[in-house]
Amino acid sequence: MVKVGFIVEGDCEKIVVESSVFRQFLQDNGCLLVTPVVDAKGGGNLLPQNIDVFINVLESSGVDKIYVLTDLEDEPSVAVVKSRIQHAKVETIFVAVKALEAWFLADSPAMSKWLGIDLSEAYPEKTINKPWDRLKEVSKELGKPGPGSKPAFAKKMIKHFGFSVGQAATHPNCPSARELIDFFQGGIP
């Protein structure tokens, strides 16, 4: 088993990566998640001058490979985000397009369980505003309780509604989730 460590942008990414379903996915693909996952507490903290501290934490935990999971936010491209974060000790940087909450929108079965109706968001990574805003809009349009705070919603999506990155990756218009899944299914070199 390859021991992998993650540095993530924030609470929601940490919750998703540390979830039992994601851990199992990694294990099924020959990887053991080393915890704790390091929360950078904001994309701005994933700059080269700040990332060494996070890398040191993971290296002291005995990881073989280090990965980063962050959001695109308002950057012009995934390439810009990756080049900003790039570090020799980081194996791969995964960028959720617009934001991780797009992956929640892409998991139609989990969204349908949350809202109590069949729902499929056509373009989860191309919402007019941020995906978080779209989640609030959808619940309001349907007269359902809103998502609450981002971390609480991430926990609910995983625990009560069965969210998984793997399910989000099956959405035809969520290539950022698909990239992460394909990477680990392809076998770690």
Question: What would you note in describing this structure?
Answer:
The protein has about 190 residues and is an alpha/beta fold. The chain has 2 domains: about 1-100 and about 175-185, Rossmann fold, CATH 3.40.50; about 100-160, no CATH class. The protein contains 10 helices and 5 strands; from the N terminus they run βααββαβαβαααααα. The protein has helices spanning about 10-20, 20-30, 50-60, 80-85, 100-105, 110-115, 130-140, 150-160, 165-170, 175-185, and strands spanning about 1-10, 30-35, 40, 65-70, 90-95. Strands 1, 2, 3, 4 and 5 form a 5-stranded parallel β-sheet that branches. α1 (about 10-20) packs parallel to α8. The chain is globular. The N and C termini lie close together (about 10 Å).
What is this entry, summarized?
This protein is globular. Helix 1 (11-18) runs parallel beside helix 8 (150-159). The chain has helices at residues 11-18, 20-28, 48-60, 78-85, 101-106, 108-115, 131-141, 150-159, 165-169, 175-185; strands at residues 2-8, 31-33, 38-39, 65-71, 92-96.
Layout of strands and helices, then pairs:
Blueprint: E1 2-8, H1 11-18, H2 20-28, E2 31-33, E3 38-39, H3 48-60, E4 65-71, H4 78-85, E5 92-96, H5 101-106, H6 108-115, H7 131-141, H8 150-159, H9 165-169, H10 175-185
Parallel strand pairs: 1-2, 1-3, 1-4, 4-5
Helix pairs in contact: 1-8
Contiguous uncertain segments of 5+ residues: none
CATH class of the largest domain: Alpha Beta
- In total, how many domains does the architecture comprise? 2
The overall average pLDDT, rounded, is 95
Helix content: 40-55%
Portion in strands? 5-15%
The count of helical stretches stands at 10
Query: How far apart, in Å, are the first and last alpha carbons?
Result: 12 Å
Write the H/E string, N to C: EHHEEHEHEHHHHHH
Largest sheet: 5 strands, parallel
Number of strands: 5
Structural class: alpha/beta
Rounded to an integer, what's the Rg over CA atoms? Answer: 16 Å
